[in-house]
Amino acid sequence: MTATLTGTAVPRTAGKPRLTRWVLRLHRPALYAWTGLVLALAALLLGLRGPLADAAAEGWRQYNACPATARCSYDQEAILRYKDYSNYATVALNVLPVLVAGWAGAALVGRELESGTARLAWTQGTSPARWLAVRLAVPAVAVAAGSTLLFWLHRLAWNAGRGRIDTAKDWYDRFTFYANGPTTVALALAGLALGALAGLVLRRTLPALLVGMVVITCFRGVLEIALPHLWPAVTRVSTMDGGSVGSGLGVGQGVVTRSGARVPVPQCDTEARCRAVYAGLTGRWSTFHPYSHSWPLQLTTCALILAVTGLLVLGSFLALRRVTGPVRAAQEATA
């Protein structure tokens, strides 16, 4: 009931269903599970940034201070504990987009289309477009907030071990890179959009779950292949007897001939043939991404993923148009 300016009570005008509240109530178990997962990983990452990193760093200090000819004691358990927990946390962040894609395909969209509850909602004053928009927007907020917190904590934990712990992963490690930046958030949102599209196309729970998880995994694999080429790399050249020509995310390497040409490393099967081949070489070259390219690669990859996510969202609404039929689409257009 609402009151007018004169104080007379009048019936409240019937409005559109509160879809946001309904989505939160319907998927409350998933929200609790997501919150619990984020909190558990956050606690683990805080431990990796603090006491676990300090203990492992002290263990490595003891180990490195031990002469090669002597037998010394060092905290091996702390080193192994940090290594295991760090790997668990990093892999977990990389798996998040797969879980989100599977859930979105199965529970968020596929199950409602398979059971018919979505069509029931469309007859209760909720347009299909609004129904889908709310189902994408509400989980997107939770997914973005949780994954942003986790990648930030992961980067803090990684920085705490960098240069102190010998077994700490390099920034360009295939799992560490994606867990260390906003690409985690972008991939999770892409998983959400992809799962929703799979649910709309397949309209069945289990197939949508499987397709969403498989396709987001394949998309991640394509990104790994394209990553070295998303930002201009640097090239370093040294003599054949020189030291390292640089380290980082490798793009290519080879040798320099007397004419100055850069060619791949020659293949030879015998010592005599190798001497003959390498006698005509003057240096080595390597094209790679140094650590300073970490953030440019992160942001470029993130922009690419978000562009694909936008296309997936557009595809979801186009698929919804096919589900509801041309008559329903015409009614929405004239509403």
Alpha-beta classification:
alpha+beta
Q: Order of strands across the biggest sheet?
A: 3-6-4-5
The secondary-structure element order is: EEHHHHHHHHHEEEHEH
Query: What form results from the Cα inertia axes?
Result: flat
Folded structure, characterized:
There is one protein chain. The protein is an alpha+beta fold. Helices cover 66% and strands 9% of the residues. The chain has 2 domains: 256 residues, no CATH class; 58 residues, no CATH class. Strand 1 and strand 2 form a beta hairpin. The two termini are 27 Å apart.
Describe how the helices and strands are arranged.
Elements: E1 2-3, E2 9-10, H1 19-26, H2 28-49, H3 51-65, H4 76-115, H5 117-122, H6 128-161, H7 176-179, H8 183-202, H9 205-226, E3 234-239, E4 249-257, E5 262-263, H10 271-278, E6 281-289, H11 294-334
Antiparallel strand pairs: 1-2, 3-6, 4-5, 4-6
Q: Quick summary of this structure?
A:
The protein is α+β, with helices and mostly antiparallel strands.
Supply database-style keywords.
disordered N terminus, 66% helix, single chain, flat, four-stranded antiparallel β-sheet
